[in-house]
TrEMBL record:
It comes from the Eukaryota. The keyword NAD applies. Residues 13-181 form the TIR domain. GO terms for molecular function: ADP binding. Coiled coil: none annotated. This is Disease resistance protein (TIR-NBS-LRR class). It comes from Trifolium pratense (Red clover). InterPro entries: Apaf_helical, Disease_R_plants, LRR_dom_sf, NB-ARC, P-loop_NTPase, RPS4B/Roq1-like_LRR, TIR_dom, Toll_tir_struct_dom_sf.
């Protein structure tokens, strides 16, 4: 990633202009006049014969001068390309366009830009001469060719004698440079930490090489740094535009001054005219279109919160000239979507190191801090959760404070959030609940992980808690929600609870803490809907529980029974794991719990009787260590994992059409019952770590069972029972890794799984993969890794795509180390992994569509076989291929060879990117993750290769 200094964002430059030219061509003519005109206008210009001190090495000094200059002007004259010195300067100048956002204004002095671009005429002659001179460094000449082509594509000035007066031509250049250097940079931040990577992400979306108009949205929660990133990007690329405008606080200013004021500000900033009066938004729109549609502008709209703001100021891309860029910051991603902004960047929070650096600079004005502060700083950073605003507020508040003062302040922040942070975040408060989860995501208030988990930023959570605290600052029993353990203990022990309380969530920080109460605390909580107590001890059980409860989760419930007057008709979730319950009188058959979805009594050691739960017809999840026969037609999930005393699986009485997953992980189940087929929609069975398991033959007639995972246990073949017509199983994914699978099991069992697509047999004891596997026509993946007794592969299915046989160390002699001829006939085989097969000597035949072939650490692989696998024709045909071979060298047919850790190769092509073969020779033990080839095509880095 390119390194960006602070000066890239704040205009900290030593020179205004750097002149690159061929001295013998134009030093005493055009360059002399141009330099004099620049100096006369107060424009500080670097020119080598006046700025370099005697005795310095020219190249390092020039490179330093280039990096310290705001605008570079390469002047292409007839003999410019004959100078290797000038060409090296040009390469360094152009690297700053992408890496540093600098402005390059090429001047073509009596030279056609197309001759520079295509290297014709004197430029063709010059490059040909360089190729002879640097025939051992073709990469250098190729860099020069690319640089000339890139420079010719930039917008600049073309002078031709006879067509224009030279003095007027110079004046046009001076005018543009003056306009650029007279612009003042925006203040970014007192301590701009972590900006580089975020700025690069936004600039990559802006696509600086495109001539089209591009709109990019920056979104995220309040205080995350959206405006700071936008200012940094603005400063970074501002010099590349004719007109600039940064509209700050659009949300606030549109309320105070109206949208017309914002339109007038836009036109004034870009056109420089104060007398523009629009009158109304609808009059302003056509004026913006007419006055700006030919200008290349950079426009930033900061803190937008309504669609009409966008429609009034940046209604369409066609309002602005070619190459214009529009950046919009907002808390609401939906606004961007509604306005058709496709390129968006969500600002992420600071990482741990960045957060520590920012709070240290704010609190100590340095990043070198006394190590005694380490713990309290880590605590502050954890509280802020990557939010720069919170870090700045805390750091500024705690300047020159002692460690004890820090600890006290953080305690206060955690109890009562700082007013500034609270007010910034509170702007989101008041969202209508009907809007749903989607709006919360778009407003960056929550995130949903891939597994469906909801993530809320810690400070957003704190803001919500403060809103609740304000409901009754003095008496927690009058608030709607309780979560702070001291407040809850106060309510429980003092019986101050009221009907205002709807939610209680209690997690004791100290496992040994005990609530000394009389059990009557819930009596007045008539609207309590959620009660969750996960950790904590109680001196006795409750006398009352509210019938209004929807969720009751109480780990270690302290009584052998629930209160007799507890009749929660609306209860949805009842979880009482690790409790003292002995019976569940609550669930007597006469009672109906139509809303009940989850029952969890894990690790309830004292339960002696499980009642009939037919009164809960919609039950979806029932968790317990032992089971009676089951007849629950609505049950969707049956998880019995780690029930270490469960030795027999219950009979299934009647069809159960909703269970799709049966998880018996780490249970001592000996066999599954014949009635398992009553789970008519069962899709997945997990039997990992179950010891010895015997399958019923009825399992092969289950039409929806597609996945059977039985790792680390001994799988017995189907027992003889009542199932007469044994059909072939519909299982598609069969996992038997580490199951002591024998040759007999494969010979008899594989035909029963003829529909499988993926077969996992790693770390097993069989010696032969039998020929009958060829009859599994749909099989596409076979994993045999670690089958150390495997000696022979008698066949593979013709549709196979992946075969992995790593660490098959028993492939010894000539007959047994040859893969069968059928491998060559596998037209669909794309991946063949044979790593660490120490005695593998030969791979006979290469499948025609192979993409990945790996034989790492196979020292016995013979020379002839390696030569075949390195054949040029094999790699030139059939698309992408990736081969990993042992103890080899780079084949002779490779045209470029380089050595070293950061080796690079440059080559030139005119039109279409050619097919490229890359061969890397690395020392044994090198991790593949640290090998990262990168392709740079016309200056654009490509990592997805």
């Amino acid at each position: 990633m390119a390194s960006i200094s602070l000066s890239s964002f704040t205009y900290g430059w030593k020179y205004d202009v750097f002149l690159s030219f061929r001295g013998q061509d134009i030093r005493h003519g055009f360059i002399g006049y141009l330099y004099k005109a620049l100096s006369g206008r107060g424009i500080h210009t670097f020119i080598d014969d006046e700025e370099l001190q005697r005795g310095e090495h020219i190249m390092p000094s020039l490179v330093k001068a280039i990096t310290e200059t705001r605008i570079a002007i390469p002047v292409f004259s007839k003999n410019y390309a004959f100078s290797s010195f000038c060409l090296d300067e040009l390469v360094n100048i152009l690297s700053l366009v992408k890496e540093k956002g600098r402005l390059v204004l090429p001047v073509f002095y009596d030279v056609d830009p197309s001759d520079v671009r295509h290297q014709r005429g004197s430029y063709q002659e010059a490059l040909a001469r360089h190729e002879k001179r640097f025939q051992n460094d073709k990469e250098k000449v190729q860099k020069w060719r690319i640089a000339l082509c890139q420079a010719a594509d930039l917008s600049g000035y073309h002078f031709k004698h006879g067509n224009e007066n030279e003095c007027e031509f110079i004046e046009k250049i001076i005018e543009e440079i003056s306009n650029v250097i007279n612009r003042d940079p925006l203040h970014i931040a007192d301590y701009p930490v972590g900006l580089e990577s975020r700025v690069l992400k936004v600039t990559s979306l802006l696509d600086g090489r495109s001539d089209g108009v591009c709109m990019v949205g920056i979104h995220g929660i309040g205080g995350i740094g959206k405006t700071t990133v936008a200012r940094a990007v603005y400063n970074f690329i501002a010099d590349q535009f004719e007109g600039l405008c940064f509209l700050e606080n659009v949300r606030e200013n549109s309320i105070k001054h109206g949208l017309v004021h914002l339109q007038e500000t836009l036109l004034y900033d870009i056109l420089g005219k104060k007398d523009i009066k629009l009158g109304s938004v609808y009059k302003g729109i056509p004026v913006i279109k007419h006055r700006l549609h030919r200008k290349k502008v950079l426009l930033v709209l900061d803190d937008v919160d309504k669609l009409d703001q966008l429609k009034a100021i940046v209604g369409e891309s066609s309002w602005f000239g070619r190459g214009s860029r529009v950046i919009i910051t907002t808390r609401d991603k939906h606004l961007l979507t509604s306005h058709g902004v496709e390129k968006t960047y969500e600002v992420d929070g600071l990482n741990m190191n960045e957060a520590l650096e920012l709070i240290c600079w704010n609190a100590f004005k340095t990043d070198k801090v006394d190590s005694n502060y380490e713990n309290v700083l880590n605590r502050a950073v954890s509280y802020a959760s990557g939010l720069p605003l919170a870090l700045e507020v805390m750091g500024s508040y705690l300047v020159r404070k002692s460690i004890k003062e820090w600890e006290s302040a953080i305690d206060q922040f955690e109890r009562i959030p700082d007013e500034k942070i609270h007010n910034i975040l509170k702007i989101h408060h008041g969202i209508c609940p009907e809007y749903g989860i989607g709006v919360l995501i778009e407003k960056s208030l929550i995130k949903i992980t891939l597994n469906g988990r909801v993530i809320l930023h810690d400070l957003i959570e704190d803001m919500g808690k403060e809103i609740v605290r304000q409901e009754s600052p003095e008496e927690p029993g009058k608030r709607s929600r309780l979560w702070f353990h001291e407040d809850i203990i106060h309510v429980f022990e003092e019986n101050t609870g009221t009907s205002s309380i709807q939610v209680i969530i209690l997690d004791f920080p100290n496992f040994e803490e005990v609530v000394e109460w009389d059990g009557k605390a819930f009596k007045e909580m008539k609207n309590l809907k959620t009660l969750i107590i996960r950790v904590g001890g109680f001196s006795r059980g409750p006398d009352h529980l509210p019938n209004s409860l929807r969720v009751l989760e109480w780990w270690g419930y302290p009584s052998p029974s629930l209160p007799s007057n507890f009749h929660p008709k609306k209860l949805v979730i009842l979880e009482l794991p690790q409790s003292c319950l002995m019976s569940l009188d609550l669930l007597i058959p006469k009672k109906k719990f139509v809303n009940m979805r989850v029952l969890n009594f894990d690790d309830c050691e004292f339960i002696t009787e499980i009642p009939d739960v037919s009164g809960a017809p919609n039950l979806e999840e029932f968790r317990l260590g032992t089971f009676p026969p089951i007849k629950l037609s609505s049950l969707e999930k049956l998880k019995l994992s780690s029930c270490h005393s469960l030795k027999s699986f219950p009979e299934i009485l009647g069809k159960m059409e909703h269970i799709t997953v049966l998880d018996l992980l780490d249970t001592p189940i000996k066999e599954l019952p014949f009635t398992i087929h009553n789970l008519t929609r069962l899709e997945r069975v997990v039997l990992i770590g179950c010891g010895i398991v015997q399958l019923p033959s009825s399992i092969f007639g289950m039409p929806e069972l597609h996945e059977l995972i039985a790792g680390e246990c001994t799988m017995l073949l189907p027992k003889q029972d009542n199932f007469e017509a044994q059909a072939s199983s519909m299982v598609l994914n069969l996992g038997l890794s580490g199951c002591h699978v024998s040759d007999d099991f494969l010979r008899i069992g594989l035909p029963l799984f003829s529909n499988i697509k993926e077969l996992y047999l790693s770390q097993n004891e069989f010696t032969t993969l039998p020929a009958c596997i060829k009859d599994c026509y749909f099989l596409t993946k076979i994993h045999l890794d670690g089958c150390k007794n495997l000696k022979k592969i008698c066949g593979v299915p013709l549709n196979l795509e992946t075969l992995s046989a790593k660490w098959c160390t028993s492939l010894k002699n000539l007959d047994l180390t040859l893969l069968p001829k059928c491998v060559k006939l596998c037209h669909f085989l794309k991946t063949l992994i044979l790593d660490n097969c120490k005695n593998l000597k030969k791979i006979r035949g290469v499948p025609p569509n192979i993409r990945t072939l790996s034989a790492r650490d196979c020292p016995s692989l013979n020379f002839w076989c390696r030569s075949v696998l390195q054949n040029e024709k094999l790699h030139a045909e059939g698309g992408d291929k990736e081969f990993h071979l042992p103890e080899t060298c780079i084949p002779m047919w490779f045209t470029h060879h380089v050595y070293g850790h950061d080796a690079s190769i440059t080559f030139w092509f005119r039109k279409k990117v050619p097919a490229i073969s890359l061969c890397l020779v690395v020392r044994p033990g090198t991790y593949e993750e640290i090998i990262q080839p990168r392709f740079i095509i016309n200056g654009d880095r490509k990592t997805d290769v």
